């Protein structure tokens, strides 16, 4: 457990983003089709917190916070916050 760390974007981040895509749009009241990952930070807690900086198809930037529970909980990742930058 610890503080936030910038990490290299990998396939697991794209998988988390796919799970929460609809939740991001719900938080923003939008209908974005695609998100490009610009930066990822993570923090290991009782699960993993992610902070994504994303770019939409119309070049808007978004900060999204996601919580991914530990695997044994069988709970999906979910958006905890999303704002336009």
From TrEMBL:
It comes from the Eukaryota. One of its GO terms (molecular function) is cysteine-type endopeptidase inhibitor activity. Keywords: Protease inhibitor, Thiol protease inhibitor. Belongs to the cystatin family. The keyword Repeat does not apply. This is Cystatin domain-containing protein. Pfam families: Cystatin (PF00031). InterPro entries: Cystatin_dom, Prot_inh_stefin. Residues 19-77 form the Cystatin domain. It comes from Paramecium octaurelia.
């Amino acid at each position: 457990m610890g503080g936030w760390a910038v990490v290299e974007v990998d396939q697991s981040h794209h998988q988390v983003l796919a799970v929460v895509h609809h939740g991001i749009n719900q938080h923003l009241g939008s209908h974005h089709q695609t998100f490009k990952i610009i930066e990822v930070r993570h923090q290991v807690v009782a699960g993993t917190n992610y902070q994504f900086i994303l770019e939409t198809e119309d070049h808007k930037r978004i900060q999204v916070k996601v919580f991914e529970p530990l695997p044994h909980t069988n709970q999906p990742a979910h958006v905890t916050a999303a704002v336009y930058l």
